[in-house]
User: Fold this.
Amino acid sequence: MNKLANILETPPFGMVRRNHGIEHATVHILTARNPNLSLVGRADTKGFYILGDVTERALRAAALEAVTRLQNGEANLAIHPRCGTNLVTAGLLAGVAALIAMGRKPSIRKLPDVILATTFAAFIAQPIGLQLQARVTTSPDARGARIGAIRASRWGNLPMQHVDVEWSA
Assistant:
């Protein structure tokens, strides 16, 4: 795991992981303020996108608070239960479980086994997905992070904003 940990800290992986953590913290803060808010986020090497109906002012305030709280040790904010990592984990585990349950000779008679196996896979996917976030896809390390420009655009009918995250050494 040590070699993997080293690789995950190198560019571009390390930058995306840290921006992903700030994105999650920002979403936690925004949805705590407005529980009915529906958002989608995606991190990149320059910061992160937020898709959803949120004002630039509210987004900036939440992103600034997210950086501050991560810098003050609230690492739990970097993990989010509705992260895509959890969805990918659930899909992958359910697919493998279905293949194993179906076996070499697929049959409709195996459907109860497939349902049971995929349900079990979905059940265990949540804690595994959270661990994958904590160890692989996100980082709570916001040392040297600063919120820069926020650029608005649209993705189809959805409002979308990119939050630039600037890093100092």
In short: The domain at 2-80+138-167 is CATH 3.30.980.10 (Threonyl-tRNA Synthetase; Chain A, domain 2). The radius of gyration is 19 Å. Helices lie at 2-8, 13-33, 56-71, 84-102, 111-137. The chain has a mean pLDDT of 94.
